[in-house]
Amino acid sequence: xxxxxxxxxxxxxxxxxxxxxxxxxxxxxxxxxxxxxxxxxxxxxxxxxxxxxxxxxxxxxxxxxxxxxxxxxxxxxxxxxxxxxxxxxxxxxxxxxxxxxxxxxxxxxxxxxxxxxxxxxxxxxxxxxxxxxxxxxxxxxxxxxxxxxxxxxxxxxxxxxxxxxxxxxxxxxxxxxxxxxxxxxxxxxxxxxxxxxxxxxxxxxxxxxxxxxxxxxxxxxxxxxxxxxxxxxxxxxxxxxxxxxxxxxxxxxxxxxxxxxxxxxxxxxxxxxxxxxxxxxxxxxxxxxxxxxxxxxxxxxxxxxxxxxxxxxxxxxxxxxxx
Length: 323
Ligand code: NAP
Ligand code: G4F
Known about the structure:
Layout: E1 3-10, H1 15-26, E2 30-35, E3 53-57, H2 63-73, E4 75-80, H3 87-92, H4 94-115, E5 120-126, H5 149-168, E6 172-177, E7 180-181, H6 190-202, E8 209-211, E9 217-218, E10 221-222, H7 223-234, E11 241-244, E12 250-251, H8 252-262, E13 271-273, H9 291-297, H10 305-322
Parallel strand pairs: 1-2, 1-4, 2-3, 4-5, 5-6, 6-11, 7-10, 8-13
Antiparallel strand pairs: 9-12
Helix pairs in contact: 1-7, 2-4, 4-5, 6-8, 6-10, 8-10
């Protein structure tokens, strides 16, 4: 039997992986973190808890590595956060994105089916699946219309999760998470690009910040509280799919206003629109209806948009000071 207090996280070195690992450790779990081979160590986000996690080598491109990890550690819960997660890159590397973000899900589901099919599984689905939105706000029943190779790959990952649940009776749940950010967000994503850019301008290291579409709107929440929704999904008697969102939407322009203002700067004096950051197809507007998560999981977003942006600006100003 797999151990119910042992969890495997793929993507543990990422933003969400690091917060989820903290949460599971605080709940008394033994945490197994899968890390892929790279020529330099990239454990910055988990450095503070590294001695409390068991790091194991593996890759969602390689099913044998997944089978071996599952056979050896027998986790009762598996959180699949590993993905090529940057939308812009998915046009440049569509096949790789499909291998990792789409087929990677089948590899891990199949490895669970062959080892411990009673293990519980979480799939990191995305609001990018809604793409050119069919209705507003978006909920679990809204049809998908992905607008990037990444979004298409996530739709595949979502449906293969539903399919393994229905075909094999697996406890496989999918969290349709809207954008969630934090001081640990990768520098290429727009929130962190802006807050880090503000900190550099404030420090006199840069004078301008080059961005793409300022009009696009997102439902941005705080990553630190979104991981609680992931865990709660796997504590339910029945597996299911849930939208996780704040229910508010804001534009990139508003993000700039709040972030520059926090540092006492005028955003219009520094932001330059640069075509290289425009996308071949855009997702113009996302806003989620998380009432199912609230009713069934008791989950609700607490951190508001302005508070989130200000937290990230403060953290980046602090980071640059320390550097
Ligand atoms: P992230 O910071 O980009 O982290 C992605 C993680 O996946 C990293 O640990 C990365 O490892 C790992 N990874 C990539 N390719 C892999 C492979 N072939 N084998 C094993 N591991 C691999 O992403 P995040 O923001 O934490 O998001 C976590 C998950 O939620 C992703 O699946 C993402 O698509 C999804 N999601 C995110 C959001 C959001 O707003 N953050 C919203 C909805 C869904 P390295 O450190 O080695 O690169
Ligand atoms: O921060 P972004 O790159 O995030 P995006 O594309 O919404 O994807 C993120 O959220 C998804 C959930 O909906 C996740 F599934 C996915 O893994 C990832 O975490 O871009 C947000 C918006 C876009 O409309 C983009 O066109 O910001 C716009 N934007 C404007 N200028 C920019 C820039 N985005 C980036 N990355 N860089 C810019 O300079």
